[in-house]
């Protein structure tokens, strides 16, 4: 915790220096710039993006707190069916194709995730493809932010996993036991962060649907495997979307990379209909 606190303070200090002394020059690089300078430029944008996302709560307005309240209320409502939902998924796990489970487990793992990101960025860097570089910077900076938040939350909340003998409302705060590191889902955070970052690069709705469908495999596989509760996946999904949108907005506003058209985001809202609850996204 001490090291994490020092890191966050350092991020804010760097951003303050940037504003006062312009040590992170915001002048855009061109296609003729050397690969080394392109990499340094991308690193700067990534660091500033992380700092921006962590600083946003200090600038929230009424509508932002209203959104947060809706998310909390929706999560509490969803948690009332956690035990029943988990039993349903685990009961139907034998009917899920082994290939789907394998893909979900592998894709959401940190090793495969970061190898994929490194490959994507490497191609973008050495071919000097700005769109690929921007997408990679968005993925990496968002992943760092969501990864740090979910790691802290897992330990802080210490929620039991479904495959334990405990119910979904069992918590051991600040526990180091892996069996009490369920909230939120790490596989979901990584998978949705990447899927949402990539989907934002497409204008075609069906392309977005395809990317999100692939991104949903890992979260669903964790539910069928009995590794997480429904709310673990739900909150991880919301967290990933919020962070990606925040950093993407920062890169857009600062004109760090070329955006071919006006920024376009998906509007996400919790919906309540009768005895049903859901998360809807409007393109």
TrEMBL record:
This is PAP2 superfamily protein. Residues 139-244 form the Phosphatidic acid phosphatase type 2/haloperoxidase domain. It holds the Pfam family PAP2. InterPro entries: PAP2/HPO (IPR000326), PAP2/HPO_sf (IPR036938). Gene3D superfamilies: Phosphatidic acid phosphatase type 2/haloperoxidase. It comes from Flaviramulus basaltis.
